[in-house]
């Protein structure tokens, strides 16, 4: 028997063989990670269990609930042995110190508390001045990071019980935060749909990943901090390479919001869903998506000049680069928020341009170890239908459903020229061999040539009633 209503929180035991989960049904359940068997049900809360944490020796489980209480369960006997009262609103997050002697809790009342478990007393109280969605404590119990509704992350020094840093950069509330094991950085997940990495030395944001199309709810790093898991209201989980920002894989299977997740020591993943289920994903499930094919229709392909590589665009919002000889995908790139309609590889095979239903053009390095988008070009007011790259890689031309053709600087991302090209949507664009002209074709059955020096149409030819698809 499993949870009867949405699962809100989940954690692996340190050995990775057991799992604990908390849910809206007010219970905590302990599971065999291999068989899925429910081993025990821990009861005591009178409202939903929002957060749990397990001590390193796997003896103590701490839980925080909407009943405003923090409870400590002895997992050896399966009973609640300590109840900590002091919050005036839902407890949103809990953590436990390395030695199990201290518990940390946060609440919707904007208060963070540090508790002495043995004495059952509050040792310190921090006023966050905003709703606290999540807290993370460093492994040496020296710093605490709080994810706040006011879009900020606050860092508290636990030795001096003082605020030491405020991190700002998210555009909406920060739902989750986690400090790296070496205390050099932290990661955060926000309802602005992004993951961010922050330097704990400088306080600056060092990386932003446009992770999901809908709100992020949770993030978690694996043991060596090389990978990060994100969960979202879009019903998916995603695994990212933290160093490069590359999307490794998408985990799909939940029928509702994915509310939390955790890593085992061997990089298995467990996720908790509002659909009442827990899902365990093995290492095979989390293999890089570049080992898989597109999941929706392929919209366009472009071949390198030496015919060694193909780049493909798809309705699954991704771009893939394929080694023709090996017949395998060598790189996957994600960043478009909707279908990718068109793609082009430069003549020297160094860069790729893509255009999407999201009205943007994106510029990418073709190298597998550089998956992040180099530049996003915005200015069109409708779908991008076609893109082309100049032979010197300095400019890109795009054609759109908005009836215009635009010339862009690759270096600056600035639109250099706009050609009001056709009376209907633009179906195809191309550079002349000497890069002095741009050709465009439209649904108006006209092909035009444009001088890049003057911006004027220097040639046009009209076809029959059928529109031209490619130039």
The helix content is under 10%
Assign the CATH superfamily of the largest domain.
YVTN repeat-like/Quinoprotein amine dehydrogenase
Question: How many strand units?
Answer: 43
Uncertain runs with pLDDT below 50, 5 residues or more? none
Shape: elongated
Q: At the first level of CATH, what is the class of the largest domain?
A: Mainly Beta
* Biggest β-sheet: strands ordered side by side in the sheet: 1-2-3-4
The fold-level CATH name of the largest domain is: Methylamine Dehydrogenase, Chain H
Largest pleated sheet: 4 strands, antiparallel
Strand proportion, as a percent range, falls in: over 45%
Keywords: Repeat, WD repeat
InterPro entries: WD40/YVTN_repeat-like_dom_sf, WD40_PAC1, WD40_repeat_CS, WD40_repeat_dom_sf, WD40_rpt
GO molecular function: RNA polymerase II general transcription initiation factor activity
Protein name: HET-D protein
